[in-house]
């Protein structure tokens, strides 16, 4: 059937119309030449629009190192992110320098092409950024260095802190008598775990007990925090970041000195004169600051090393960790004081209610609202100043019999409890000591009867 059709006739009648080009008609717009990565070019074009200036105006500001302060620091930082790479510069230099080629470039490419004609374009951008950010960076760096210097000096020289640590070591040696007692010192990390040691009835922590001991017997130690006031700030300093910031600042200063010297030796270079005007005087202004900064860093390293060594810690330990031990103890000590205050308020409130409900006989004395424990009512001589000594004698000023009974009653471990975390009680030694005391008391009674 198909063979019977006139295919030639069908082709003539129903073929598609051919498009005919007219003389002078082109293929449309010329294809845009793209040098920069499309995404990078798009982002940079958006940035250029924010300046609200033409490429020529912006490049003129760069050439003159923004001597009129026309652009803010944030925009200079953005320009620093869009420095032409070596590959981009090479491709731009390979382009034909004619009007048709330039017209085919997008705005980002045209800016980069013009930027390559500015001598030391990248160095100018970096120099302006360094100058505009200098004061802010110094204000950020200097307080951190000073805090580390002062905190390192404070923890070494503070007498009250030394005596507080002596008292804590004395408690630890007493609790661990017969096991790990008679220690010459303890790791600073232990300071953060004292609050985890609880009394047998779980109603009192060792830290709260220490706070009460300090208030009643060693009140002068309660002000130990006043002698280490820079510790909280030092505990927030990341030493690695601080060193990196100082190194970057020193590197920027050296590069600027080198560039100013280069421009001074080549005064005929385009823009050399204005570069010297903008930065030669600036370098003189910051010279003393940079010298002070380097000296402070050296002083900080020395004092921090002395402090870590004084407490038998590694010199590589971060200040966040080293001073963090002290800072955590300060916070926990403050919380323990608040707990003790609330506990006393509750006890006194309870006793006032009890007194109000009772009839007090005429002439009878009012009951004492707060009877201090035997341990806390015993006067004591000052704690020895030296930390690295046998510290059990620091507790011998207390009446030993009452002290033993009180400590055993408060902090004797329960049979079903886990081992105390930091300053646990030596149960066997306490039982033996109590038994010896009972036997000694019995012998004394027999002697008196005779």
Task: Lay out the secondary structure.
Elements: H1 7-14, H2 38-51, H3 55-63, H4 73-81, H5 86-93, H6 99-103, H7 107-115, H8 121-157, H9 159-175, H10 206-217, H11 231-234, H12 239-265, H13 272-310, H14 319-357, H15 400-411, H16 427-449
Helix pairs in contact: 4-8, 8-12, 8-13, 10-14, 12-13
Report on this structure.
- With 450 residues, the chain is an all-alpha fold.
- The radius of gyration is 40 Å and the shape is elongated.
Instruction: Compute the average pLDDT.
Output: 80
Termini Cα gap: 148 Å
As an assembly, this protein is: single chain
Strand content: under 5%
Shape: elongated
The total count of helices amounts to 16
Number of strands: 0
Encode the helix/strand succession as letters.
HHHHHHHHHHHHHHHH
Rg (C-alpha, Å): 40 Å
Structural class assignment: mainly alpha
- Unreliable residue runs: 6-13, 15-26, 368-406, 413-450
Biggest β-sheet, characterized?
A: none
Main features:
single chain, mainly alpha, 16 helices, disordered C terminus, about 450 residues
Compact description:
This protein has helices at residues 7-14, 38-51, 55-63, 73-81, 86-93, 99-103, 107-115, 121-157, 159-175, 206-217, 231-234, 239-265, 272-310, 319-357, 400-411, 427-449. It is mainly alpha-helical.
């Amino acid at each position: 059937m198909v063979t019977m059709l006139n295919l030639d006739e069908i082709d003539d009648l129903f073929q598609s119309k051919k498009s005919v080009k007219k003389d002078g008609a082109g293929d449309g717009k010329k294809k845009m030449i793209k040098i920069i990565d499309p995404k990078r070019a798009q982002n940079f074009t958006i940035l250029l629009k924010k300046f609200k200036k033409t490429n020529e105006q912006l490049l003129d500001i760069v050439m003159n190192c923004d001597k009129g302060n026309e652009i803010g620091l944030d925009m200079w930082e953005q320009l620093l992110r869009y420095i032409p790479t070596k590959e981009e510069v090479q491709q731009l230099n390979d382009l034909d320098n004619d009007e048709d080629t330039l017209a085919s470039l997008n705005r980002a490419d045209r800016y980069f092409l013009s930027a390559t004609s500015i001598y030391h374009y990248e160095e100018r951008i970096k120099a302006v950024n360094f100058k505009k950010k200098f004061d802010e960076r110094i204000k950020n760096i200097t307080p951190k260095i000073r805090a580390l210097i002062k905190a390192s000096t404070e923890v070494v020289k503070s007498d009250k802190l030394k005596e507080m640590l002596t008292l804590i070591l004395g408690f630890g040696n007493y609790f661990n008598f017969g096991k790990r007692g008679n220690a010459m010192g303890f790791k600073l990390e232990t300071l953060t775990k004292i609050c985890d040691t609880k009394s047998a009835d779980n109603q009192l922590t060792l830290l709260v007990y220490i706070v009460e001991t300090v208030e009643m017997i060693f009140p002068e130690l309660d002000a130990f925090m006043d002698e280490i006031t820079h510790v909280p700030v030092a505990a927030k300093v990341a030493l690695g970041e601080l060193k990196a910031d100082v190194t970057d600042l020193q590197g920027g200063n050296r590069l600027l000195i080198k560039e100013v010297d280069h421009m001074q030796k080549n005064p005929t270079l385009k823009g050399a004169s204005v570069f010297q005007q903008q930065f030669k005087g600036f370098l003189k202004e910051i010279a003393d600051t940079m010298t002070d900064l380097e000296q402070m860093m050296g002083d900080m390293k020395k004092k921090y090393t002395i402090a870590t060594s004084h407490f038998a810690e590694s010199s590589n330990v971060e200040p966040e960790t080293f001073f963090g031990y002290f800072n955590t103890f300060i916070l926990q000590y403050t919380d323990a004081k608040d707990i003790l205050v609330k506990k006393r308020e509750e006890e006194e409130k309870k006793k006032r209610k009890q007194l109000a409900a009772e009839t007090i006989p005429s002439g009878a004395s009012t009951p004492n609202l707060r009877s201090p424990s035997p341990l806390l009512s015993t006067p004591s001589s000052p704690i020895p100043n030296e930390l690295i000594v046998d510290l059990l004698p620091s507790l011998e000023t207390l009446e030993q019999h009452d002290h033993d009974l009180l400590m055993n009653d408060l902090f004797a471990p329960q049979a079903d409890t886990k081992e105390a975390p930091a300053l646990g009680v030596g149960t066997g030694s306490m039982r033996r000591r109590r038994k010896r005391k009972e036997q000694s008391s019995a012998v004394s009674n027999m002697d008196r009867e005779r």
